Structures are given as structure tokens and as C-alpha cells.
């Protein structure tokens, strides 16, 4: 059972739409009796926005556009002031509710696939639309090729544009050190493999007892990254939503 004093470290990027005081994942867990600590692990720098702008000006070349993260949507917003209205007549796809909401509110597009938690579950949704032209795919430097491969195998072309770089957050080491000096986490939650790669050596040097921590992932790709470090995955949220994460932690805790 969950201890009311259980501390959860949330290791994720802080988006431009939120901050560590009002992060929805922290709010959801705290509403369920956990104590949370936000650890910003990643930062992002945008690039190739001129190339992206050029491609966005030619919607006639595409069947639609795919957004796999909020950063992809933010890159489009940074590249253009107003999106060409012709994109509204094409297919739009997004991974997760946060990305879909950002796309809808700021780009006035209506994405499909918000229920999909990753590229694997988004692929069949895309394929069901039977795109006849390539799909524009803004992406980051650490993107997985899973979605592209699934679409390519089914005969659907993508036009990938690398629009942002993922780098360690400049304050990561200090933030993590201070957090560990204040309270030892019962759970550490990761949202991406890069978050694990950036914090693992810092945690090792800190002397934390890895056996006493319950390691939690958002999705199977991040779970696999935890396992690559020989860390036992306590539970994995099926979708990148606060509710899915909270339910995964609580459900797994009652089973252990």
C-alpha cells in the first residue's frame, strides 16, 4: 500500500506552458497523497526553423503533419506566425493529449491520435487514413525511428525535419543534489530515455541505494532504457497523462 509520505521525483522537461509549481503530473500525484519533487532533466534548443517554414508553406506536397511531442508543435509555432489555412484540410496527428491540446489551441488544427501514448500506437491511426502523399514530421535529434519504420513498411512516406536538440538541463546536477539532501525518493519517474541517461551517473555518484527506489517509466521505450541500466521497472504508465501515471503507481503499489 502507498505510504502518505511517499516521495516521488518527477524527472522530466519543464515545458514552456507550465513550471514546477503547477505541473499537472505533480498536481495529480499530490491530490492522491504523494509528495512530489520536480527534477528538470532536459532542455531544448530549436534549429532548422527556416527549413521547416519553407515546408510549411507547401501543404500541397503533403497528406498531413505528425506531431510527436510538444516541442514539435512549439517548433512550428516558432517557425511561422500563422499556419497556412490549407493545413486544416489535411490530416493532423499527435502523440498524447498535451501535444494535441497545444496543436489545437495554438495552430488551430484538430489532431487525431491524442489517445496514442507513443509512435507504435499512433501508427495504425495514421495508416487508417490512407495518406497518398508524404507526411511532414518535425522531430528532435534523439527521435526513435519506430514510427517512421512502421509507416515506411506500410508504404507511407514521411518527410522528417530535425527542429530541436535535446540537451541536459543546465541546473540538473544542482537541483538533483539539493533534492536528495532534503528527502530520499520512494519513486523516480522518467518520461524519456535521455532523462535516464542524464541522471544515472549523478545518482550513482550520490550514493543512493538503487534497491530502495521504485523506478517508474512513461511508456515502453523508457521502460526499456531503465532495464538497459539493470534497473527493475516497478511500473509503466500506458499513456503520457497524469491520471495514467498515478493509476500505474497506485495499482502496482497495492500488488507489491
Automatic annotation (TrEMBL):
Cited function: Catalyzes cyclization of the linear tetrapyrrole, hydroxymethylbilane, to the macrocyclic uroporphyrinogen III, the branch point for the various sub-pathways leading to the wide diversity of porphyrins. Porphyrins act as cofactors for a multitude of enzymes that perform a variety of processes within the cell such as methionine synthesis (vitamin B12) or oxygen transport (heme).
Biochemical pathway: Porphyrin-containing compound metabolism; protoporphyrin-IX biosynthesis; coproporphyrinogen-III from 5-aminolevulinate: step 3/4
Residues of the Tetrapyrrole biosynthesis uroporphyrinogen III synthase domain: 25-246
Identification of the protein by name: Uroporphyrinogen-III synthase
InterPro entries per record: 4pyrrol_syn_uPrphyn_synt_sf, 4pyrrol_synth_uPrphyn_synth, UROS/Hem4
GO molecular function annotations of the record: uroporphyrinogen-III synthase activity
Gene Ontology biological-process entries: heme B biosynthetic process; protoporphyrinogen IX biosynthetic process; uroporphyrinogen III biosynthetic process
A Pfam family it matches: HEM4
Catalytic activity: hydroxymethylbilane = uroporphyrinogen III + H2O
EC number: 4.2.1.75
Family that this chain belongs to: Belongs to the uroporphyrinogen-III synthase family.
Enzymatic class: lyase
Annotated keywords: Heme biosynthesis, Lyase, Porphyrin biosynthesis
GO cellular component, one term: cytosol
